[in-house]
Amino acid sequence: MDFYQQKQKDGMKKLRELQADLPPLTKEFFTGIADRTSILTRINYAYDLRIFFDYLKNEVFHKAALSITLADLNQLTATDIEEYIQYISVYEFHGNENANQERGKARKLSSVRSFFKYLFNKDRLDANVSAKVSFPKLHDKEIVRLDVDEITRLLDEVESGGGLTKRQLDYHAIYKTRDLAMLTLFLGTGIRISECVGLNIDDINFRNNSFKVTRKGGNQAILYFSDEVADALRAYREERLDIEVKDEAEREAFFLSAQNKRIGVRAVENLVKKYSQIITPLKHITPHKLRSTYGTALYRETNDIYVVAEVLGHHDINTTKKHYAAMSDEVRRAAATKVKLRDPEES
Q1: Do residues 317 and 308 lie in contact, with contact meaning Cβ atoms separated by under 8 Å?
Q2: Are residues 109 and 256 in the same domain?
Q3: Is residue 340 part of a domain?
Q4: Per the structure, how many domains does the chain have?
Q5: pLDDT tens string for the chain (347 positions)?
Q6: Could you write out the DSSP letters of every residue in 34-83?
Q7: Is 181 part of any domain?
Q8: Residue ranges making up the domain that contains 263
Q9: Is residue 143 part of a domain?
Q10: pTM of the predicted protein model
């Protein structure tokens, strides 16, 4: 079983666990959308619907969530849904206090609207009252990415380890080549973190500098990389082939953890954070921010948003625009030097 098959299997198990907290009427929804949504999408729906039904249990029907029926849902009004959106500003769930800003509210409303729309289209509800509820107004978020000089400093830091603690340097001596290959791959291809951890040894072809990835939705694609990226990957591959992996299921993994298993998402996030905080402590840099860095750099070089969309694997061109919209930061930064408050010659 390969990485993606295992991920699918684990996702199905997680979805069943979440559905155990939901009323039986939701089973039809998850079955009906299975062929047109990813397992991750359905898991996110389940998380959001658990909170919605917990709200209905506590604030509307005052009965167990598992006993809520279609007849109960038919009693709901658009006002009930609007009150739910206000409720999740600050709420308790399973003994923990949680809060949502505008984007969290929008996502949870989207899940509820998808659920109601499905049931209404299947003639299971008399009306889709959720469709009458407007999404919260979303304010644009500042796009965070590395500047050109920060990219250089980040890669230099991975090579030298100059800003690491003594304890970190012990690990750096062992994993420097791996870390450099991984960050170079992020910055040189815009690969997603899931695609990075899912890479196998045989997915990389050095004859034409290409590699195979499984993208969101399960589609496979061939991406290409520069000679600079190739050098970093090839250096790590030489070390990787000398590492004995005992777990048969992990033997094909390209990037390995300290336990000689396929490296996980959290470990990759931590190593990106470790190095990036040294060179730019005021920016919260994640693997996705490295992807944004690549998208912005690619647009700067090509001036073609469709090329960027194709390489990054975006289905919606509006998603791609976020990567080059960040270039407005450069305009603002340049503008800061244009207005002179005092004439230097008069000082």
Answers
A1: no
A2: no
A3: no
A4: 2
A5: 578 888 889 999 999 999 999 999 999 999 999 998 989 999 999 999 999 999 999 999 999 999 999 999 999 999 999 999 999 999 999 889 999 999 999 999 999 999 999 999 999 999 999 999 999 988 777 778 899 999 999 999 999 999 999 999 999 999 999 999 999 999 999 999 999 999 999 999 999 999 998 887 677 889 999 999 999 999 999 999 999 898 888 899 999 999 999 999 999 999 999 999 999 999 999 999 999 899 888 888 887 888 888 888 887 777 777 656 555 555 555 555 666 566 666 55
A6: GGGS-HHHHHHHHHHHHHHHHHIIIIII-S-GGG--HHHHTT--HHHHHH
A7: yes
A8: 148-333
A9: no
A10: 0.78
